[in-house]
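Problem statement: downstream parser choked on a complex file, so we are re-checking the raw output for the 2-acetamido-2-deoxy-beta-D-glucopyranose run. The parser issue turned out to be on our end (a line-ending mismatch), but while we're here, posting the original submission so the record is complete.
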Amino acid sequence: MEFKSSLLICFLAIQFVPILCASQDFDFFYFVLQWPGSYCDTSKSCCFPSTGKPEADFGIHGLWPNYNDGTYPSNCDSSAPYDQSKVSDLISKMQQEWPTLACPSGTGSTFWSHEWDKHGTCSESILDQHSYFATALKLKDQLNILQLLSKAGISPDGNNYSLSSIKSAIQEGIGHAPWIECNKDTSGNSQLYQIYICVDTSGSNLIECPTFPHGKCDSNIGFPTF
Ligand SMILES: *[C@@H]1O[C@H](CO)[C@@H](O)[C@H](O)[C@H]1NC(C)=O
């Protein structure tokens, strides 16, 4: 009912203010976490942020508006560029939980600004810049992926784990199947790199993923130390 009436409003509004409808046009979010150990042990390597080595935990990569068909909108509003003064109360938390590992070392603002400009502007009608970053931080705290993996005996100790055991531990912990993205360490071994979790358009409810990204992990993957 709610969906139908918002469609109707959108239909009526489209004749007068099409931009309103275009700006909220996405189906769900991917909330993407990355394992810093797997970012850093590749041939490309990494640089710790100028604020110091991040803690050994999954870091946020981003909260990405997506379409059910697997495509996604990007760079939706060049008139609303990243403005760090709008998230000043969140910066210390972002430094901890959304650390940049790109080279050369930075404070994180280049990373956050890329995420907002490319992805965040596409969910602007629902989450303004402050809510966008606050929502991602809240999701990270709620999920606590490292802890639920460790309860299932899976920890970043440099050993290999079966992909299916990692998926089921997360599914049991959060109630929905995640998508796992792997990359390769310097010896070419497949390892746990990023975890994709699907969230509804409000940014607050986890959902079953309407579609999964592409890519493949080996059936046994590394979980390197950091
Ligand atoms: C993990 O698996 C790879 C590929 O089979 C293997 O080369 C590597 O030695 C394994 N690592 C450990 C710590 O067992």
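For whoever reads this later: The helical segments are 2-14, 18-23, 36-40, 91-97, 109-118, 129-143, 145-151, 163-174.
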